[in-house]
């Protein structure tokens, strides 16, 4: 029974490591992060909602389908490709997690 907390702790550690890896690899995480900070949070706290809107228009637009923010309907093919890639990432994460704790 004494070993149980260590095993759980290692699971938590691996989850945090994965989240931190995602934050480094994906620049979108700079806008809001797991420690209640980031560009948008700081802008809202220091300068208010108008600054958040400015950041959304100027800095976040590169993550949109259309830089001007207009709507974009994706095709079924685009959706299926996105869904497949997501499932692959989840499968790799689960496999990696199981290898670390198993």
UniProtKB/TrEMBL annotation:
It comes from the Eukaryota. Keywords: Receptor. This is Transient receptor potential cation channel subfamily V member 6-like isoform X1. It comes from Elysia marginata. The lineage of its organism: Eukaryota, Metazoa, Spiralia, Lophotrochozoa, Mollusca.
């Amino acid at each position: 029974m004494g070993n149980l907390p260590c095993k759980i702790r290692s699971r938590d550690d691996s989850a945090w490591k994965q989240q931190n890896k995602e934050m480094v690899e994906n620049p979108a995480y700079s806008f809001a992060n797991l420690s209640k900070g980031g560009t948008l949070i700081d802008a809202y706290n220091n300068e208010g909602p108008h600054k958040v809107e400015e950041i959304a228009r100027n800095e976040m637009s590169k993550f949109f389908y259309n830089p001007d923010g207009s709507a974009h309907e994706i095709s079924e093919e685009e959706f299926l490709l996105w869904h497949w890639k997501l499932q692959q990432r989840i499968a790799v994460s689960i496999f990696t997690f199981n290898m670390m704790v198993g």
